[in-house]
């Protein structure tokens, strides 16, 4: 359908096609506006390339390359006409069009007729090869140019830019790409100013847009247009004072084209463009380039100077010639055939039959994309990805316009970023795009200054900043207005002024008190005034909370804050049982149990081998109790002999050391520090009770208690001053007050009968509020950090907020003495319990092994007990026997068995020996001799 629309406007009355060349000629078309700088330079360069190719018969094998030029004269209609005329005369390729607008249109015609379009000036990044496969850009497109500009903006530390552009496809899409590249570097375009496209723009349109730009906050301006409109913008900007110090102008490649090809024109405009930065496509030096530049004066007759686009024009012709040579060498023939889509559409006087399809167009396009050559512009090779057919290793020179011409301050390449070293030098090294490796030389900025502009001013062309400050009624140490004047003082104001002193620029401002002067203002409303533009900033004791950060930007906090609970307290009287307070009842009980358990374990482990743990039962009980509790003071006199017993005792002594040390520390605190008591233990107590809670008027505490903690609003009582705090707490109107820590510290400095209960249950800070993305917020944050590092912030705090009075006492008594709970020692008790269990288990296993070894399998048949009962009785007797005695008896038994085996008195010895063993190991028959030493 697009082709039909294009053809329908091609009204030719002739019925025969034009014969533009002989069969031996290869026709190539060129569509440009030859009155433009690039049009003039490109025509000369393409003609020179045509002559050079035709002078060498080896290139096309005796064929002649014939370039037909068509002047579109800024007209889209004439561009279409020229393209259709070329298609009539069997043209195998078209160089152009010059503008991206026409490239979007003519690419549909190229797709239909398979005739490649090659352009080095229509560099719109949205001319995708997926949509326009027969359109090829032979110069770096604007995506790379916008990437270079975005990296320059980031390199100099600017956050926002204003984009001025021609309102056509190339201008709009270029600025969209710039916005994307800036966003990747956490920058943005704050304002877009569209101008009429060349050549219809006029001074009135330009002036109206520049007046709007001058009212913007950003002073970094990117100018993406063409030479006629661009020079007009600079001229009007100079008249409006926008080329003075403080501004930054970055122009795209159109300005470098003027500087290179029209130096006289640039010199006439030098006052308007001085200090601007611009980009120029980088073309490395070579002998061929130098020789061509020497030929240029003869080629141009001195009418115009060469610029990089002339080099790209020359190379584009050579790309086509090499592709033709490869096409013919592959055995292909240049032929055309009728387009089947045009059959039946030839009514009237339209000569549609003259439009034919290039039969070898796909192969010819493939040959173009496989180009690998070194031209005047440097190495030429296309990316082979289907979604990106751009030139490999694109790069730009970065130029600064100065008093008498320009100076090059560095390079940008897609390989290594910003550098003062030429890209060719860096291609042999690994790519390194880190910020530490990005460098540019010094710049002379607009106004002749060499110091980097900060890149922004306050809106409305730098008028005084309107700063809202809370008109407080209470806690006036933070912010207060002097009665009868507009002067504002206080801790927050001093911090703000101190931070301003660290900024490298002045900030004219005026303070505007907010509030009726009868009660503290609502801080949410004050912050909202910043978002609506009523205030340019808000300075004061403004807490940084979540719902506020969604709409404005805060600086770095200059003081820590957080909500705390304040409640009345009473002194605890000392009593005779104070020594029991360090431990909770459960802690006392568990500790006592472990004393007994460990004593019993040690007794079991030592009883069979240690004489100190043997004897009558009453004596052993006393020994165990004495040993157990004497370990509390490390005064036990009984020695442990067994290895297992020593291990258990070492672990237990370590546990005792920790427990006694903790007890001593806690008891010392109880007996020496004044203890305070209150039924309110913290915010948890308030949440589970139905007591009323006080809060400061205007504070965010009200919303926090309702929305975050789900406390009914009916329980909340608004209080306006420290005196109201005290009165409400004393008469029971409220059980506690919830407020921010800085206010509470001041309150407690004069009211010692109250104390902070629990800990802070929110963590935040106070900061200065600015509109979203305000660069002043970033600079002020840096200044606040500097104040904190050099100690100045602490000095301001001490000046306003350090109170003597009883603040130190209340600080030390802000919480109850915490008793030591079992949870704090659970790990120690667990280790000790596991060690005791393992020791007993190992001991039992060893004893069972000994029992099997030293006792007979069968019980005495004379005993009436059942076998299991007798066996258990035997084991208990064995467990009570001393180890040395068991070993001695076992030895005697083995001797008797030896005698019996030799035949001496088998029956007698056997019976006597059995009686003796039974008598020795039976506690019932030896009358307790086994308890003796």
TrEMBL record:
Signal peptide positions on this chain: 1-15
InterPro entries: ANF_lig-bd_rcpt, GABAb_receptor_plant_PBP1, Glu/Gly-bd, Ionotropic_Glu_rcpt, Iontro_rcpt_C, Iontropic_Glu_rcpt_pln, Peripla_BP_I
Domain Ionotropic glutamate receptor C-terminal: 466-803
Keywords, ordered alphabetically: Disulfide bond, Glycoprotein, Ion channel, Ion transport, Ligand-gated ion channel, Membrane, Receptor, Signal, Transmembrane, Transmembrane helix, Transport
SUPFAM superfamilies noted in UniProt: Periplasmic binding protein-like I, Periplasmic binding protein-like II
Primary location group: membrane
Entry's family note: Belongs to the glutamate-gated ion channel (TC 1.A.10.1) family.
Annotated protein name in UniProt: Glutamate receptor
Origin organism lineage: Eukaryota, Viridiplantae, Streptophyta, Embryophyta, Tracheophyta
